[in-house]
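HUMAN:
Could you generate one sequence with tokenized structure?
ASSISTANT:
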Amino acid sequence: KFMVNNKPKVSIGVPVYNAEKYLRETLSALVSQSFTDFEIIISDNASTDGSREICMEYSEKDDRIRYFRQPINIGGWSNFKFVLDEAKGEYFMWSAADDIRSLDFVELNYNFLSSNSEYVASTCPNRFGGDNLDVSFSLNENNDFNRYVKFFDYCWSSHGIFYSLIRINILKECPLLKEGAVFFGIDWVIDIFLASK
């Protein structure tokens, strides 16, 4: 077992709903990260499959995991917001319950952000299952307009920003998070907010 300190460097939020097909592989990749100063916050959104048992199995083996089960389904975005609200770390990342991370994902992005204070988020090449990893780009344009254009030019890859390692103080500045807004595509608006920073 691992002991989590009161304020880990990184918080990883895993919103879950009926995810038993991939959940074990997702959690195994997270607990096996080369960077170890993190917490994992799992919010099970009243799953009706075997997700609860998988989450409990992992949380019983690793003290860095905090497992919450919602008594009723609170909706997808509210579940994503719940794990963010529970986060204690200086850095935060969402991990969808079917995301598989390389074992050095947190370490690489933590090291980058620690060395580059002008950046608000960092991620590694990402892809949908079966796609190629041949797209590489940066949103480090000097003006907002060019940064937005580049974001949309590469939108199927740049949406990985939402699942990147993010400075939590910047993320929590997003007005939509403060207002409790809920609408389809809110993740893309958060991407644009981060790109503006």
